């Protein structure tokens, strides 16, 4: 049962993390970004450069790079020739010949977590133009050179992901939210069937929940793979031809693997959903495929791109699992278990869920604290960045959920211990104790999906 001691435990852990942040000076790494360029943004050059060198904060795999040059008349030319410079964090692009006037160069990277990072540099090439002269005149001895007026240089160096890609960020957040919703629905039903109240899958709404869960996982994963393919393909390249090269980068391979894992989950659970039972063979397959899905999911967030990825990836998988057990279990209890079993069994199921939820919350708090230290090892970014503020909002909601859960369950257990309420009243009390938590858990899902897209620093 979630008690006041568990609530105090969560508050203590969060307070310890915030306090520890004051004494840690190592700043977590953000998405890769440009730190230098040659030519630099705003440079005026006497002659056209033959190469453009860009230095980044992290190493850059060549298969994740693309670039283009835009001349003053709007002509765009892809930069298809590039090599590493003095280190693997420096990319040297070969520029086309004959550049003159205002020139804008643009780079784009696919980050190790699949996020698109882009930037641009503007400079001027002063091409000289000689006046025509009459032979034998004074002007023929001293030709006049006219310089073109200096055009306006683009002040922006960094480009947001929504500018760098054709798919807007709200669509990406919606896809991630639907994916987390699928995890919650499917995870809650599996927990209910295996640990809370066997037979939950036989309820019509329970079957629909499982079908919706696997459909959301497979559908969102497939669409995310198509979006990533659209991000990395060249403008002149077809989506079909670029699809075959998606495995050439780690983010693309992980997205494709996640899609395959979600399809395998759907195939494995199809017969179980029809029969309304999870046999031993199905449970074994789930034990093998679910971790694969969770690990590939972690690659699409900050677990891979930030510091200590070897720790962040398994911690993120545990964090998502504990969220699915707690929030998914709450939804299953509210809509599937309590309304469809006798009131005495409902109370027993509620007690079993409380015990399981207590363990899940402990894992959720501990893994959340570790992730907070990884992403924000300095206290400043927690309170000054969008990621930090949203993370604080998420933590606040979780702590409030803990407080409500402890209060509701203690009140319910005290009433049932003193005098057993009528079946209808008991069912109503059980429903009320999970309804608010489920609603708040849904908000946590949306915040989690939004946090994935925002750099911590």
Give the helices and strands, then pairings.
Layout (H helix, E strand, L loop, with lengths): L3 H18 L12 E5 L5 E2 L5 E6 L8 E7 L4 E3 L3 E3 L5 E5 L6 E10 L5 E10 L3 E2 L7 H4 L3 E2 L11 E2 L1 H4 L4 H28 L7 H29 L6 H5 L6 H26 L4 H19 L3 H4 L3 H29 L5 H33 L3 H6 L1 H33 L4 H30 L5
Parallel strand pairs: 2-9
Antiparallel strand pairs: 1-3, 3-7, 4-5, 4-8, 6-7, 8-9, 9-12, 10-11
Helix pairs in contact: 1-11, 1-13, 4-5, 4-10, 4-14, 5-7, 7-8, 8-10, 10-11, 10-14, 11-13, 11-14, 13-14
Can you tell me the number of structural domains?
2
CA-CA gap between termini: 38 Å
Unreliable parts: 1-30, 128-164
Shape: elongated
How can the largest sheet be summarized? Answer: 6 strands, mixed
Give the class from helix and strand content and strand pairing: alpha+beta
Rg value: 28 Å
Percent of residues in beta strands:
5-15%
Q: In percent, how helical is the residue content?
A: 55-70%
Our count of helices gives 14
Topology pattern, helix = H, strand = E: HEEEEEEEEEEHEEHHHHHHHHHHHH
Q: What's the pLDDT, averaged over the residues?
A: 76
Number of strands: 12
């Amino acid at each position: 049962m979630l008690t006041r001691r568990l609530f105090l435990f969560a508050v203590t852990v969060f307070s310890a993390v915030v306090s520890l942040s004051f004494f840690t000076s190592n700043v977590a790494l953000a998405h890769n970004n440009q730190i230098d360029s040659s030519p630099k943004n705003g440079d005026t050059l006497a002659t056209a450069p033959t190469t453009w060198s860009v230095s980044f904060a992290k190493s850059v795999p060549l298969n994740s790079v693309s670039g283009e040059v835009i001349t003053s008349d709007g002509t765009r030319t892809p930069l298809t020739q590039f090599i590493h410079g003095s280190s693997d964090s420096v990319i040297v692009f070969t520029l086309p010949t004959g550049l003159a006037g205002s020139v804008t160069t643009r780079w784009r990277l696919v980050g190790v977590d699949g996020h698109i990072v882009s930037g641009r540099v503007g400079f001027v090439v002063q091409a000289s133009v000689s006046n025509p002269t009459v032979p034998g005149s004074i002007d023929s001895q001293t030709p006049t050179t006219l310089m073109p007026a200096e055009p306006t240089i683009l002040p922006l160096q960094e480009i947001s992901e929504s500018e760098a890609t054709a798919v807007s960020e709200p669509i990406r957040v919606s896809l991630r939210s639907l994916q987390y919703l699928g995890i919650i629905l499917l995870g809650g039903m599996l927990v209910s069937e295996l640990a809370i109240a066997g037979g939950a899958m036989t309820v019509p709404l329970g079957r629909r929940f499982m079908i919706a869960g696997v459909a959301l996982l497979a559908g969102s994963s497939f669409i995310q793979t198509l979006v990533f393919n659209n991000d990395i393909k060249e403008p002149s390249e077809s989506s079909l031809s670029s699809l075959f090269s998606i495995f050439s980068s780690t983010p693309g391979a992980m997205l494709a693997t996640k899609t395959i894992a979600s399809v395998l989950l759907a195939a494995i659970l199809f017969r179980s959903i029809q029969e309304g039972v999870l046999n031993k063979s199905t449970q074994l397959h789930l034990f093998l495929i679910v971790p694969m899905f969770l690990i590939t999911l972690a690659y699409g967030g900050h677990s891979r791109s930030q510091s200590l990825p070897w720790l962040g990836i398994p911690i993120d998988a545990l964090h998502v699992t504990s969220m699915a057990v707690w929030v998914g279990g709450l939804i299953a209890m509210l809509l599937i278990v309590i309304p469809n079993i006798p009131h005495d069994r409902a109370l027993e199921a509620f007690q079993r869920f409380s015990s399981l939820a207590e363990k899940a919350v402990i894992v959720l708090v501990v893994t959340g604290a570790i992730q907070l230290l990884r992403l924000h090892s300095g206290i400043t970014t927690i309170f000054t960045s969008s990621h930090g503020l949203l993370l604080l909002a998420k933590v606040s909601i979780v702590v409030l959920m803990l407080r409500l859960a402890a209060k509701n369950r203690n009140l319910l257990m005290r009433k049932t211990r003193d005098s057993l309420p009528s079946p209808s009243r008991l069912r109503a009390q059980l429903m009320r104790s999970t309804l608010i938590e489920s609603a708040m858990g849904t908000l946590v899902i949306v915040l989690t999906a939004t946090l994935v897209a925002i750099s911590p620093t």
